[in-house]
Structures are given as structure tokens and as C-alpha cells.
Write a structure and sequence with these properties.
Elements (H helix, E strand, L loop, with lengths): L2 H20 L4 H14 L5 H15 L5 H19 L2 H24 L6 H12 L10 H16 L3 H7 L5 H8 L2 E2 L10 H13 L8 H6 E2 L3 E4 L1 H10 L13 H17 L4 H14 L4 E5 L17 E4 L5 H17 L4 H9 L11 E5 L3 E3 L2 E3 L2 E6 L16 E6 L3 H4 L8 E4 L11 H6 L4 E6 L4 E6 H7 L5 H4 E5 L2 E3 L13 E3 L2 H6 L2 H16 L3 E8 L2 E9 L20 E5 L6 E6 L1 E5 L1 H5 L4 H17 L5 E6 L15 H4 L4 E5 L15 H8 L3 E5 L10 H6 L4 H4 L10 E5 H4 L4 E7 L4 E7 L4
Parallel strand pairs: 1-3, 2-18, 21-22, 22-23, 23-24
Antiparallel strand pairs: 3-6, 4-5, 4-6, 7-8, 8-12, 9-10, 9-17, 10-11, 12-13, 14-15, 14-16, 17-18, 19-27, 20-26, 21-25, 26-27
Length: 763
């Protein structure tokens, strides 16, 4: 060995000794780790070190007592380690000893019944301040601590914990806590929606595993902050609103009436001064960037219970003077908290036997994805993606490759039933395939309006896209629009090609074929489904060549009943309807009552008030028929926010029906609007309500509307106060009209064939 090599080795030994002395209490543990590493590499073992130490002591003429032997062995361990390991490896092994000590303390603290969040966070931070390196705590030991930390700070829902413990590391939780706003008086968790998003990110981009370069390049999570449930429990306590904890046990009518008046009460209520100061510091930190305050209750997005659309999400422009931004932010938080007492949320919990759970609300606050163009802020696209495609209108579509429901701009229009506007439905196995074929029909059933944040007006606005892009210079029209002229449609061939807005259609053709979006989304959905062991749905935004994951949850799927075989011996005069578009797998037997909202009569209603009266009546009849086997038929687009397109009902208005049918007159074979991919559709699936679409004007369709219009109407006797609506809403006792027979409904999703017919229960 050269002199310079000897010097370098001595320097490394000196550094080792100096570091070990610094961590005096860990000397034994560090050298034990060193020795294990030396043995694993086959360099030297404990017995060889013992012999070498004894020989050296004999040469010195010293007694080989235990103290002298240990002194020599320690020196030899340091020497061998310095000789055979790099400085980085030396540091990693020393830090492993430090991590093991800090881990044992964390393990002790997190598993104490009286452990406070503050003590756990302190122990967690002490562990995570030690450099990570590439030597880790044994997985079997780390798993228990991960489970305890996840249960304390994130979610105690066992199905979630069972998945999360395999993907969320101890350091991930420390990273999350750095983005949390905790209450000083009340503990809490970040809630289901925030937990699902965080877990999805860690599944897609794991900390301790090799990452997919494509996913690393394109996948992002928006800058997110977590306001845990303790803040909102503290808000109720501070304002002495204790009675609200019993709101869920009141009668449905009382809940609805009091909820309408709750807004004024919450506006007057205030947060404690120290919490307001936290909010102020938060807004100073994030600056004047648009925000979305999203509900994240403890139960929300849990396995089997998505709570889709039950709670509020509030967009904030977050512009201007800090005090104005603070006032808007606090009102947004109050609206989210207040939504936990909404009739829809409480009724949903009742229907799923969750009413006695002590549901608490957290908030996930995110910077809105997008860019500013003039006074407007929005992403290129947003929507929802499903790992399993239940809406396969042709056998060519591969259901297991998923589907996407997307819109230009904010994704709100993709997840809520809206006016006479249509998102793009994309089967990921065949992204350019559409239910419509002719350009004129594609244009009719395309997106016309776009949701954006107007930063100057400080609100969300809905604007015709033609008007919006006429006002601003937008660089990505190449990916969104196709030209339409003389019954011909074509996507731009190059980015500088001009498309006349008045003669354009939002098609996303170039986006779907000339960006990595489709293969990327398929990969994301496949990875998430494999990790969850269950189909998932994901809310997303795409902007500036990045895919942002906004939400992930276990997908509501109907009962698996295999291939449905339609009866082949049904007499023609026993058939009520047939359908063959947008058919979802299912069988519903022995329907005794049909509630029929006549689409033609509904269309003829003149005023908003008249149509809203029908919505209230549907809800009233739904409650009265609770426990009965009934089906609800009516105009297309149930639950639409536009009363001219459909009856504006919520979950609480339809939750007792077995079937929700949309009767689409004069649609000429158009895309069935069963709202697949919207929050409303998820309600149907979770409540085991079978959605179906009937197109009476299609030549192959049977629809005996005469039966529904001529049968005796029970409405006046059932709801006397609404007798004036009997020409629009009909309640039919099926067995009384069919010699004791009931309605039997068979829907074959695979073959896209369905039938409803009269039959006795035992036939």
C-alpha cells in the first residue's frame, strides 16, 4: 500500500472514530452494524477478529482480558470498515444505527394509548431528520409503526390502512404533516379524500422503489394542504353549536328545513383567534393563487362509500387584499363544514348504516391546476377516469382498459350533470371511438360551455368556449378543437393551423392521439387498481403537459351477477320496453309500482317553479314508497342542474327506487345520458339502483307508453296536495293493472340488450 493510500485510510479511520465518539451512546450498536456488514461481504468475521486481537496482544506482551480484546476488536472493525467501504457507505451504516435508536423511540411513543399528536410528531421528526440513505429499518418492524402513524394522522378505516401500509412510508407521513394545519385543542385526521389522493401519489411514485421514468416525468399532485378535522370540531365547540351533533337523528323534513336556514347561522359564527391567525399565515404562504377547498370527511371516499357529490367543494379566486382573501377562505371552509349536515349526506349515511358513526369534516386545500389567460384561470382539461369501463356501447371496447369522461377547462362539468352540454367519453382501449358517427351528431353531443375562474370578478364562470377563445390568446386549441364545415369534421394538421371558432367542435382528437395522455392514464389506472385490489376512479386535470391526480377512490361497482340471459319466451303483449343502448348489467324482479314522469308533459311546463315542483313531488313520492318495490321512469338527464334538460333531483329524492330509467324521445340514437362518471351515477351504483335508457323513436325499440298513460293514476290518493300534477307524474300499481303480474327487468350489459315485461313472481 502506498504512503498516500495509508494516509487516506488513516483519515477515514479518524473520521469514523470522531463520528462514533459524537454518538457515544451508540458506539456498541454502530460497531455491531459494521461487523454484520463485514461478515455479509465475506471480509472478516467475529472469530477472525478475536484471533487477530489476541495475536496482537501477545506481541505486545499484554494480557488478553475482555476489555483489552474489545479495544483491539473495535479498532480492527474501524480499520477494516475504512479499508473496504466508501465514505458514503460508512455514513449510511452509522445513520442506520441512529435510525434504529430513533425508530425504537418512535415505536414506543406511537403505540402508547395516551400519546398526543404533538409527542408523536416530535418523535417522528427526530427520526426523519436523520438522512434516509439506502439502508432501511427491517420491513417487519417498520410496518407496525406505519400502521400506527397512518391510523393516527390519516385514516383508521381498515381497508384503507391495509392498502396504505404497503405504499406510504414513515418519511411520507412526515412529509404530509409538514403540509398539515393542526388544531391546538382538538386532534383529528386529514379525512378520506385527502388520504386517497395522498395514497394514489405514493402508489404511482413510490419513495423506496424504482419509479417509472414516464410517470416521474408527467405525473404531479397539486400543491396541497390539509386542515384536519380537529379544526372543525373546534369551530362547533367555540360557537357552542353542540346541538348539531344530533342533527342526523332528526326527521328528514326537519333536516331539510333547518339546512336551508343554516347558512345564515354559519356566516355569523367565527373561528377562534389563534385559528384565524393560522389561516392568515397560510394565505400569506400560498400567495395570490386560485385555491379549491375540498371536503375530506372521515368517511368520504372510503372503500364502498364514496359520498360522491354529498359534500361541498369551493373554488376561491384568492386575489386582492389579504383580509378579503381571508374572509373568502373562512366562508369557503364554513361551507364545506356545513355540508356535513346536508340532507343528502345524512340520508346517504342512513341508507348505508353509517348514521351512528361520529363523522367529522376535514378540508383538503389545493392550488387550482391551470394557467392564467387574461382575467381567466383554468387548466387545459379535467375530468374523471375509471379503471373499468361499464359504458361499453360496442363489443370492440375492452372494459378492463378503462374509460375517461373529460371536458375542456375546470373538470366540474365532467363530474356533475349539467345543462345541455356533453363531456367527451373516451374508452381508453379505443380512444377515438365514439357512440356518434355523423359529424352533425358529434357536434350536437359535444361540449359547448367551459368553466373557468374569473380572477377579476373573483368567481367561477361558465362561458361559451367560442366567446372565451375569442377574447384570449390560447395556445392549445390545436389539441382541443376540430373544424366543422359542409357536414365534414377534421382535426388541425399542424399547430399553427387556424380553426374558425364559429365552425369548430371540441373533440380532443389531437390531444388523444398526439400526446402521451391515453397510455399514461391507462398505466396509472392499472397501477392503482392492482394496488387497491379493486377498480378505482380518479379525478384529474391536465395542463402544460402534466397529469395531475386530484382524487382517487375505490370505484363503486354493482353486484357481479355474470352474463344476464334475457328470457326468450316473452309474449309481445307482455313487454313494456326493450332497450339496446347504454345497457348496464342487472336484473330487477317483481317491481310493483312505476312512477312515470311524462317527458312530453314535463317539457310543456312553462316556469322554473312548475318544474321544481315536479322535483319536490318526485322526492315526496320516493319517501312514501320507501320499502315498496318501485321503478322511476322519466325524462333524460335525471339530476341535471338545468331543469329544462331533466328533473332536478338529488340522491335523497330517488334513493328508494330500484330502477332509474331515462326515456329519451326524439334523440335519434344519440348517446344515452345516464350520467355515467358523474357523482349522480355513482349514487345509483352504490345504492344498487339499476340505470337504464330507453329510446322510443329507435325502430328496434319497444316502449308501450300507452300503458303508462292510460293506467289508473294513484297520485291524488297518495299525495293529495299535489293532485294538480297528475298529468305530469303518474303512480301506477302494476299488479292491479296486469292481473297480478309484476314488472321484471333484465339487462345484459355484455350483449347490450334489455327487456322489461310483465310476469308473475314464480315465472
Amino acid at each position: 500500500m502506498s504512503e498516500s493510500s495509508c494516509v487516506a485510510e488513516l483519515v477515514k479511520v479518524h473520521r469514523i472514530v470522531r463520528t462514533i465518539v459524537r454518538y457515544e451512546s451508540l458506539q456498541r450498536e454502530i460497531r455491531g452494524i459494521f461487523l454484520t456488514a463485514l461478515e455479509e461481504r465475506g471480509i472478516v468475521n467475529d472469530a477472525a477478529l478475536e484471533r487477530e486481537a489476541r495475536r496482537a496482544l501477545r506481541e505486545e506482551g499484554r494480557d488478553a482480558d475482555r476489555e483489552a480484546l474489545n479495544e483491539y476488536k473495535n479498532a480492527l472493525i474501524d480499520l477494516y470498515f475504512a479499508r473496504h467501504f466508501t465514505q458514503s457507505e460508512i455514513d449510511n451504516h452509522i445513520n442506520l444505527a441512529r435510525k434504529l435508536e430513533a425508530f425504537q423511540h418512535l415505536h414506543e411513543v406511537v403505540n402508547r394509548e395516551d400519546a398526543t399528536s404533538a409527542r408523536i410528531k416530535k418523535a417522528l421528526k427526530a427520526f426523519c431528520e436523520i438522512p434516509q440513505g439506502n439502508l432501511y429499518i427491517p420491513p417487519s418492524e417498520a410496518e407496525g409503526v406505519r400502521v400506527a402513524l397512518i391510523s393516527h394522522f390519516i385514516s383508521s378505516q381498515l381497508p384503507f390502512v391495509g392498502v396504505a401500509k404497503n405504499h406510504i412510508t414513515i418519511r411520507d407521513i412526515d412529509e404530509l404533516i409538514d403540509h398539515c394545519y393542526w388544531n391546538r385543542r382538538r386532534s383529528g385526521k386529514i379525512g378520506g379524500k385527502a388520504a386517497g389522493m395522498f395514497l394514489a401519489y405514493k402508489i404511482i411514485l413510490p419513495r423506496l422503489q424504482e419509479c417509472d421514468p414516464e410517470l416521474e416525468k408527467y405525473i404531479h399532485v397539486p400543491e396541497s394542504y390539509y386542515f384536519n378535522s380537529g379544526n372543525f370540531s373546534d369551530f362547533l365547540d367555540y360557537n357552542r353549536l353542540y346541538s348539531f351533533h344530533s342533527q342526523k337523528y332528526k326527521a328528514s323534513e326537519t333536516i331539510e328545513e333547518e339546512y336551508r336556514n343554516m347558512s345564515a347561522l354559519f356566516k355569523k359564527a367565527s373561528f377562534p383567534p389563534d385559528v384565524i391567525e393560522d389561516f392568515r399565515e397560510f394565505l400569506q404562504k400560498v400567495g395570490e393563487h386560485p385555491l379549491i377547498v375540498r371536503s375530506s370527511s372521515l368517511l368520504e371516499d372510503s372503500f364502498g362509500y364514496a359520498f360522491s357529490g354529498k359534500y361541498e367543494s369551493v373554488f376561491l379566486a384568492n386575489q386582492g387584499e389579504l383580509q378579503n382573501r381571508l374572509n373568502d377562505f373562512m366562508w369557503g371552509l364554513k361551507r364545506v363544514l356545513m355540508s356535513i349536515f346536508s340532507p343528502a349526506a345524512i340520508l346517504y349515511r342512513r341508507d348505508h348504516q353509517l348514521i351512528d358513526f361520529d363523522e367529522r369534516m376535514s378540508a383538503l386545500v389545493q392550488k387550482v391546476v391551470g394557467r392564467r389567460f387574461g382575467p381567466y384561470f383554468f387548466p387545459f382539461a379535467g375530468g374523471v377516469a375509471f379503471s373499468q369501463n361499464a359504458y361499453a356501447w360496442t363489443p370492440r371496447i375492452i372494459r378492463e382498459e378503462g374509460m375517461v369522461r373529460m371536458v375542456l377547462g375546470l373538470g366540474t362539468r365532467a363530474v356533475d350533470p349539467v345543462e345541455s352540454d356533453y363531456p367527451r367519453m373516451v374508452p381508453l382501449s379505443h380512444p377515438t371511438l365514439r357512440p356518434e358517427v355523423e359529424p352533425a351528431r358529434i357536434r350536437k353531443y359535444s361540449q359547448k360551455l367551459i368553466d373557468v375562474i374569473n380572477l377579476e370578478a373573483r368567481r367561477v364562470e361558465t362561458i361559451p368556449y367560442v366567446d372565451l377563445f375569442g377574447r384570449i390568446d390560447y395556445p392549445d386549441l390545436y389539441y382541443a378543437l376540430s373544424s366543422y364545415a359542409n357536414e365534414h369534421m377534421a382535426a388541425p394538421m399542424y399547430k399553427t393551423q387556424t380553426v374558425a371558432l364559429q365552425n369548430s367542435i371540441i373533440t380532443f382528437e389531437n390531444f388523444l392521439t398526439k400526446t402521451p395522455f391515453v397510455p399514461l392514464m391507462k398505466k396509472v389506472l392499472r397501477r392503482l387498481e392492482e394496488a387497491y385490489g379493486h377498480p378505482v376512479d380518479v379525478e384529474f386535470a391536465w395542463d402544460d403537459d402534466r397529469l395531475y391526480i386530484l382524487q382517487c377512490r375505490s370505484l363503486a361497482v354493482g353486484e357481479k351477477i355474470g352474463r344476464v340471459v334475457l328470457p326468450d319466451n316473452v309474449a309481445p303483449d307482455a313487454i313494456l320496453f326493450t332497450n339496446n343502448v347504454g345497457v348496464f348489467n342487472g336484473i330487477v324482479r317483481d317491481v310493483e309500482y312505476i312512477v312515470y314522469v311524462d317527458p312530453k308533459a314535463y317539457t310543456l311546463l312553462d316556469t322554473y317553479e312548475d318544474k321544481m315542483l315536479i322535483a319536490r313531488l318526485v322526492g315526496k313520492v320516493n319517501r312514501l314508497l320507501k320499502g315498496k318495490r318501485y321503478a322511476l321512469f322519466g325524462p333524460t338527464r335525471w339530476g341535471s342542474s338545468d331543469i329544462n334538460q331533466g328533473v332536478k333531483v338529488g340522491y335523497e329524492d330517488i334513493n328508494h327506487t330500484l330502477i332509474l330509467a331515462e326515456v329519451a324521445f326524439k334523440e335519434d340514437g344519440s348517446t344515452p345520458e345516464v350520467s355515467y362518471g358523474t357523482h349522480f351515477f355513482n349514487d345509483l351504483v352504490e345504492a344498487s339502483i339499476l340505470p337504464l335508457a330507453i329510446y322510443p323513436d329507435r325502430p328496434e325499440t319497444v316502449f308501450r307508453e300507452a300503458f303508462l298513460l292510460e293506467a289508473p293514476n294513484l297520485l291524488a290518493s297518495l299525495v293529495p296536495d299535489f293532485a294538480a300534477c297528475r298529468d305530469v307524474v303518474r303512480v301506477i300499481d302494476v299488479p292491479a293493472r296486469t292481473d297480478g303480474r309484476c314488472l321484471q327487468v333484465y339487462q345484459d350489459g355484455q350483449g347490450q340488450q334489455g327487456i322489461g315485461f310483465w310476469s308473475h313472481a314464480d315465472q
